[in-house]
Amino acid sequence: MRMNIATCFNKILLEIERNLSGTMTKKELIKYVAGSTEHTIKDTEEIVDEFIDYVKNALIEHEDVTIHGFGTFKTKLRDARTARNPQTGETIEVPAKYALTFKPTSTFKAAINE
Asked: What pTM, to 2 d.p., does this model score?
């Protein structure tokens, strides 16, 4: 019996949480999820790619992405400001821009600090 996409996403998030102490590549994540489910590496890669595309596209549209038990990805508009080049002392205008933010859930923060 094959797992549904929601179950695969939960596996992905759990593996990310387990590997907070080190760096995990996309390839390693795909291998882990494929190995712990009945999906092939190719199918798992497609699922992971769809998940990443969904999150990226939502953020490009300035929509929040909340994943229960993990956290919320948001874009935040940073105001235009005047800055100074430290080497030359020249004043420059920095335009307004969006910045990506991530706020983990309290349970996720607690797990990190255990």
From this structure: 0.70
Q: How many domains does the chain have?
A: 1
Q: Are 82 and 73 in contact (CB under 8 A)?
A: no
Q: What stretches of the chain show up as alpha helix (H) in DSSP? A: 5-18, 26-36, 41-60, 106-112
Query: Residue 88 maps to which CATH number?
Result: 4.10.520.10
> Tokens 């102490």 map to which residue?
21
- What is the Cα–Cα distance from 56 to 48, expressed in whole angstroms? 12
97/78 Cα distance (integer angstroms): 5
Structure confidence by residue, pLDDT tens digits, 2-13: 445 566 666 666
